[in-house]
Every structure is written in structure tokens, then in C-alpha cells.
Inverse folding.
């Protein structure tokens, strides 16, 4: 029989200094209690314009799942078989919707000046996420393994050489572009998305400019 | 000639206005996005009763 050992007595100072406790406190303190998945939102959130952030997130989930399926099947599968072509199309169209929703989300947040009330980092992570997403989509177009991909690569080569990054980011190297597309950039997009969501939950949804925010009143 | 090759043979139609050169397809997508943006601002969200209940809750 095993029992749960608790060698540290409550209030023990050494336990408070341990790295596990420090990490736990940090993670728990990232977002105020009850705000990870809140059951209620202020009345001004009852508008369709507040829906586009989560629509972007839903599209990203479809992009990741279909991208995983394409990786499992491989190039020959998604260029030849009916199911492969269908999943390939799902991947493309979920990306199209991802960008459309993200840009409408961006317009909404820009016109409501969403960086107000200590939300500058939320805005900036969104900006970086937008740029990282463009890079991911770009390397995706380069990884289509068709004439379209070759044409885009040839056109992009001069431009990227001209800005000085062509030596280590070579669009004419399909292996490098594919690995950027399926490993490095999705990791960056995923990580920044998590940071963005944590910041939104930490600071709350930005109120409209003419609305009274209880948080800003306190500040 | 199949319908697919007919489509792929087309160079596409472009709108050329001063320094602006954009394909009709891209222009229509941007117009649709702007339309969705404005509809999101003006269309009511949820039922009238839901909104009244939420306003009442926020007043308390």
C-alpha cells in the first residue's frame, strides 16, 4: 500500500523557497482567481465585434489539426488521394478564415483603442502574433510542392536577399521552408497565442471608449 | 477544354486605379470583410431579454 508522503510541515520556510512552489505560485498568479474561464462578462461584451478573437482561435485550432493530418499523410497523400485533397483544402480555407477573422478582430481592437488600461502588452503580443502568422502562412505557400510554390519562392528570393536575410532564410530551400512551417513558426505562434490569451484574461476585455470600466475607475 | 483548365487559363481580372492595382477577387474579399465588420458593429447580439437582464445585472 502506498500513502501520500508529506514530509514538509505546513509553514515550513524551505517549502516556500522550493522551485516547484515558486513556479506554482507564478502560474496561479498569472490570472486573477475565477478569470481563466469566467462565467460572466460586462454588458458591453454582448456585441458581435467581441466574437472575432475567439473565431480566430477556433480557426487556428482547425489549422493545427488539419496541418497535423497533412504531416501524417505526407505530400503524395495530400496531392493525390481524395481525402488528402479534402484535408489540404480544409487547411487552406481555415487559414483564410483565420486571417479574415484576425484582421476584423484587429480593426475592432484598433478602433476601440484596446491598448488602454494597462493593456499595451496585450496589443503588442497581438501585433507580433500577426507578423508571425504571416510568416507561417508564407512558408506554407512555399511548401505546397507545386508550381505555385516555385513561383512564389522565385519572386520572394530577390526581396528577402535585398533585406539581408536571404543567406540564412533561403526560400529556394524547400526542406528549410517546410521545417520553418511545421516546427519553428507554429511553435512561435502557439506560444504567443497563449501569452496573448493569458494577458486578455489577466487584464479583462477592454471596455468601449465611452463605457465606465470598474477596473479603470479604481485606477 | 475542361472547366478547370478554362479557369486556370484566365489571367484574372484586375482593378487599376492610379497606383492601386488589385485583383477583383481580392477586392471582393476585402469588401466582404469590411461589410462583416460593420454588421458586427450594428447587429444586435443575443435576444432583447438577454441584453436587458445583463444591463440590470450590471446596474446592481
Amino acid at each position: 500500500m502506498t500513502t501520500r508522503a508529506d514530509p514538509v510541515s505546513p509553514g515550513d520556510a524551505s517549502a516556500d523557497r522550493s522551485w516547484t512552489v515558486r513556479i506554482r505560485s507564478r502560474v496561479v498568479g498569472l490570472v486573477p482567481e475565477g478569470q481563466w474561464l469566467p462565467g460572466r462578462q460586462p454588458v458591453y461584451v454582448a456585441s458581435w465585434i467581441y466574437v472575432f478573437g475567439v473565431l480566430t482561435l477556433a480557426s487556428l485550432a482547425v489549422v493545427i489539426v488539419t496541418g497535423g493530418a497533412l504531416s501524417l499523410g505526407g505530400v503524395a497523400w495530400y496531392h493525390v488521394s481524395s481525402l488528402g485533397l479534402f484535408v489540404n483544402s480544409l487547411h487552406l480555407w481555415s487559414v483564410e478564415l483565420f486571417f479574415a477573422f484576425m484582421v476584423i478582430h484587429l480593426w475592432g481592437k484598433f478602433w476601440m483603442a484596446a491598448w488602454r488600461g494597462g493593456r499595451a502588452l496585450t496589443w503588442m503580443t497581438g501585433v507580433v502574433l500577426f507578423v508571425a502568422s504571416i510568416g507561417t502562412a508564407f512558408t506554407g505557400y512555399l511548401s505546397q510542392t507545386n508550381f505555385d510554390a516555385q513561383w512564389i519562392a522565385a519572386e520572394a528570393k530577390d526581396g528577402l536577399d535585398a533585406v539581408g536575410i536571404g543567406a540564412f532564410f533561403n526560400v529556394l530551400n524547400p526542406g528549410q521552408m517546410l521545417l520553418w512551417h511545421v516546427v519553428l513558426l507554429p511553435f512561435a505562434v502557439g506560444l504567443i497565442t497563449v501569452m496573448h490569451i493569458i494577458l486578455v484574461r489577466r487584464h479583462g476585455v477592454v471596455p468601449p471608449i465611452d463605457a465606465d470600466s470598474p477596473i479603470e475607475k479604481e485606477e | 477544354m475542361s472547366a478547370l483548365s478554362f479557369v486556370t487559363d484566365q489571367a484574372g481580372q484586375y482593378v487599376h486605379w492610379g497606383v492601386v492595382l488589385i485583383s477583383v477577387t481580392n477586392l471582393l474579399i476585402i469588401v466582404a470583410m469590411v461589410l462583416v465588420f460593420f454588421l458586427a458593429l450594428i447587429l444586435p447580439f443575443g435576444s432583447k431579454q438577454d441584453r436587458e437582464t445583463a444591463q440590470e445585472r450590471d446596474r446592481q
